[in-house]
Amino acid sequence: MSSTVIERRGSALRPGTAPRRRRRRNLHFPAYLVLTVLALFAIGPAVLMVFNAFKSNAQIGASPLAPPTSLSWSNFSIAWQQGDFGATMRNSAILVVGSAAGTCVIAGLAAYALSHLDLPGRGGVITYLFLASSMPVQLFVVPLFSLWTDLGLTDNLFGLIVIYWATDAPFATLLLRSFLLKVPKEYVEAGRLDGASEVQIARRVMLPLAWPGLMTVALVVGLWAWNEFFWAITFIHDPAKRPISTSFMAFQDENSTNWGLSSAAALFMLVPILILFLVLQRRFVAGLTSGGLK
Questions:
Q1: What is the pLDDT of residue 1?
Q2: What is the 3-state secondary structure (H, E, C) of the chain?
Q3: Is the pTM of this model over 0.85?
Q4: Where along the chain do its domains lie?
């Protein structure tokens, strides 16, 4: 008989081992119970929304918490046509791509300047970025709306994208700066010795090394642009140019008593961005972790 088998049998025969394990399980049980309740509290409304999307109003009134007895896709087709979600999802996709790409460029260049260039007043700029990212956006609505009206940027997707650039750039710059601070300065000095300009060093050397941070910024900005409501309802009034967040609100107001149609329309807004997050969640978490942002 081998020594490992003897050690296992000996440990199994030791007095007090089984009660100790039971005590550990008993200590973990309240934590598991609390986590289970919180998970049900968070996931429960989403599950009910999926159930109601496949049920008629009569079925919802008869059994609002029960799963559908049969899958009916009529709510999705009716909601898609009435709400014109094909056009509004396209508008939101334009906002997501434009906001993410522009914010990555602006924040990437700014983060490189703040991390590897000897700029006067660099500490003041970083403090300003912290303050700008924490200030409520409602403070700028009145002057910004007046300026955008004079420039003809209301009811304009590009005008809304510019606002997203301005509101997302402070946080994105601080996040990318934390990535670039980890890159050794020898890379920058080697690029300068080879005759590269600062823009070339940032574009070809530094930003590729901060690719996880750029992916994180793009995902955060994309999620925010897809779900953003305040700026969209303030600056976009043309129904043909509405993003999905404001068009869903209008559709829900028109069908406030039809829970099946409202639930189907909510899935149009939820499913695309949920799939995107599930696909990129590992890179998102790894990017935030490696960035060291506190």
A1: 47
A2: CCHHHHHHHHHHHCCCHHHHHHHHHHHHHHHHHHHHHHHHHHHHHHHHHHHHHCCCHHHHHHCCCCCCCCCCCHHHHHHHHHHCHHHHHHHHHHHHHHHHHHHHHHHHHHHHHHHHCCCCCHHHHHHHHHHHHHCCHHHHHHHHHHHHHHHCCCCCHHHHHHHHHHHHHHHHHHHHHHHHCCCCHHHHHHHHHCCCCHHHHHHHHHHHHCHHHHHHHHHHHHHHHHHCCHHHHHHCCCHHHCCHHHHHHHHHHHCCCCHHHHHHHHHHHHHHHHHHHHHHHHHHHHHHHHHCCC
A3: no
A4: 3-74, 82-291
